From TrEMBL:
Zn(2+) 1 binds at residues 157, 160, 210, 213. CXXCXGXG motif repeats lie at residues 157-164, 174-181, 196-203, 210-217. It is found in: Cytoplasm. Binds 2 Zn(2+) ions per monomer. One of its GO terms (biological process) is response to heat. Participates actively in the response to hyperosmotic and heat shock by preventing the aggregation of stress-denatured proteins and by disaggregating proteins, also in an autonomous, DnaK-independent fashion. Unfolded proteins bind initially to DnaJ; upon interaction with the DnaJ-bound protein, DnaK hydrolyzes its bound ATP, resulting in the formation of a stable complex. GrpE releases ADP from DnaK; ATP binding to DnaK triggers the release of the substrate protein, thus completing the reaction cycle. The lineage of its organism: Bacteria, Pseudomonadati, Spirochaetota, Spirochaetia, Spirochaetales. HAMAP family: DnaJ. Belongs to the DnaJ family. Homodimer. GO terms for cellular component: cytoplasm. This is Chaperone protein DnaJ. Its cofactor is Zn(2+). InterPro entries: DnaJ, DnaJ_C, DnaJ_domain, DnaJ_domain_CS, HSP40/DnaJ_pept-bd, HSP_DnaJ_Cys-rich_dom, HSP_DnaJ_Cys-rich_dom_sf, J_dom_sf.
């Protein structure tokens, strides 16, 4: 079954603002959420479809890529919209962090998130994933490199080894919710669950919290790591580094780090897929008579290029295998395309003017030229 356009799914225009997109998704999510429609596969499908659309359109970079290239452009940019949506859909709290005022109380989201992310282990929630935007030179993205980055994250507290409890302390069952992590209250026909205010939904409390981290088990620290940039990576792609995100509270597992690549434009080259394009100037004499010139490739090599006699301005010449390596097969490379730009002199010496006049007299000049067909340009 073909995918529907994301704007159509949310019922918004392509010029919709972020607030309009969020509002449209909120409405659909409340209507089709599986907890509200148990056993309704159609509602579940609509909910997943709406969530996938929101995940893309709420992200400015993904939205720009989708607007320009459609679904194909989203491949490899992350889970939503690239065929790997299940990861985003599984983590209820991650997706609906912005809508906690609705979903946290209506569907009891706190306990669901805790049981999945921490395996049901009381008080030990997994750490948050982190994002790092890394700007790299054009050539680094093309040929790969190792880059050191520095960022701030939550790390396990050294005083309590991440447990959150002072030495000799531990966890006790929360007496408010009796370990359930939720409290329920009646509201009309509904029984609404919400995270326990005493334990924050963990089901347990620390009897003697660590003084260094106030019982959270984590402290802020600066982290330096080296990131391997694979050859051929494109602007907007991300690199997944497991277990380099925030440490989990009270000894919970760490999150992951996602490094998003921002490629700095090159002064002379432009990338299209794995091919690169540049413009090379030649003189009118070289274009008319033909010549052999030396052209510098992206990796710094000098290659001889033959200019055929009678070359027209704008002609494209191709150098096979001088482009960018393929991301998953560096043995394959794209091509390099050179657009020839014929430079007409703006100043002529007396001798040069005389020679050009001789050429004009010899070749003749069309005083009434006809337009060129656009297809020939």
């Amino acid at each position: 079954m073909a995918k529907r356009d994301y704007y159509e799914v949310l019922g918004v225009s392509k010029t919709a603002s972020p607030d309009e997109i969020k509002k449209a998704y909120r409405k659909l999510a409340v209507k089709y959420h599986p907890d509200k429609n148990p056993g309704d596969t159609e509602a579940e499908t609509r909910f997943k479809e709406a969530t996938e659309a929101y995940e893309v359109l709420a992200d400015q970079q993904k939205r720009q890529t989708y607007d320009q290239f459609g679904f194909a452009g989203l491949e490899g940019m992350g889970d939503g919209g690239a065929g790997g949506f299940s990861h985003a859909f599984h983590d209820f709290e991650d997706i609906f962090g912005d809508f906690g005022d609705i979903f946290g109380s209506f569907f009891g989201g706190g306990a669901r998130g805790r049981s999945r992310r921490s395996g049901g282990e009381p008080g030990r929630a997994a750490g948050a994933d982190l994002r790092y935007d890394l700007e790299v030179p054009f050539t680094t993205a093309a040929f790969g490199d190792k880059v050191e980055i520095e960022f701030t994250k939550h790390a396990a507290c050294g005083s309590c080894s991440g447990s959150g409890a002072e030495k000799g302390g531990g966890f006790t069952t929360c007496t408010t919710c009796n370990g359930a992590g939720q409290v329920r209250r009646s509201s009309g026909f509904f029984s609404i669950a919400s995270p326990c205010p005493a334990c924050g939904g963990s089901g347990s409390v620390i009897d003697n919290p660590c003084k260094s981290c106030s019982g959270s088990g984590v402290v802020q620290k600066k982290q330096k790591i080296k990131v391997t940039i694979p050859a051929g990576i494109e602007h907007g792609k991300r690199i997944h580094i497991p277990k380099q995100g925030d440490a989990g509270k009270n000894g919970g597992p760490p999150g992951d780090l996602y490094v998003y690549i921002v490629v700095r434009p090159h002064e002379y080259f432009e990338r299209r897929g794995n091919d690169i394009y540049c413009a090379i100037p030649i003189s009118a004499a070289q274009a008319a008579l033909g010549d052999e010139i030396s052209v510098k490739t992206l990796d710094g090599k000098q290659i001889k290029v033959k200019i055929p006699a009678g070359t027209q301005n704008g002609k494209i010449l191709r150098l096979r295998g001088e482009g960018i390596p393929h991301l998953h097969n560096n043995a394959r490379k794209g091509d390099m395309y050179i657009q020839v730009r014929v430079q007409v002199p703006t100043r002529l010496s007396g001798k040069a003017r005389e020679l050009y006049q001789q050429i004009a007299n010899e070749e003749g000049v069309d005083k009434n030229p006809s337009p060129l067909a656009l297809k020939d340009l």
